[in-house]
Amino acid sequence: MIYAVALLKALEQMGVETHVVVSKMGAYNLKHECDFSLEEVKALSSYYYQNDDLAAAIASGSFKTDGMIIVPCSMNTLAATANGISSNLIHRAADVTIKEGRKLVLVARETPLSAVHLENMLKLARLGVTIMPASPGFYHLPETIADIVDIMVGRILDQLDIDSKLYERWH
């Protein structure tokens, strides 16, 4: 969840419109991993939706977006996305993103990975979905956890062609 919070903060600072949904377990992990409240997430969001709101704008392919990032992405959400199951708004919005040919980035949250996880990831990768394990590089020699988070968030934003300047590029 630390990546999700940092991503929202970066997007807000850059003035990028965001449409945010947090699952029940996401809200639980937010509090336990970041000591950050759902109300604080809502305050960082341009628009916030309940996960059971399948009538939300982002549930429709006619609602134009630049793409979607699911961070962190549980193996449940990854499996639902890989199999076209739209039982909640996160799943439906991911399904719409794929069917409309838009960029979808899944920042996978799990280790180790089972063969089932890997098969679902491969299925999605073959559809053009970007699978990004939450595994930051260390060749930038980060000195703090914030440095590590910035590198990962910068790499996530790169996938949507958003230049954040959060980390120094290799040269």
From TrEMBL:
Enzyme type, top EC level: transferase
Family annotation (Pfam families): Flavoprotein
Gene3D superfamilies (UniProt xref): Flavin prenyltransferase-like
Keyword rRNA-binding: no
Catalytic reaction annotation: dimethylallyl phosphate + FMNH2 = prenylated FMNH2 + phosphate
Residue intervals of the Flavoprotein domain: 2-160
Keyword Flavoprotein attached: yes
MF terms (GO), sorted A to Z: carboxy-lyase activity; flavin prenyltransferase activity
Entries under SUPFAM superfamilies matching the protein: Homo-oligomeric flavin-containing Cys decarboxylases, HFCD
InterPro entries, sorted: Flavin_trans-like, Flavoprotein, UbiX-like
NCBIfam families for the chain: PRK06029.1, ubiX_pad
Family to which the UniProt record says this protein belongs: Belongs to the UbiX/PAD1 family.
Protein name listed in UniProt: flavin prenyltransferase
Organism annotation: Acidaminobacter hydrogenoformans DSM 2784
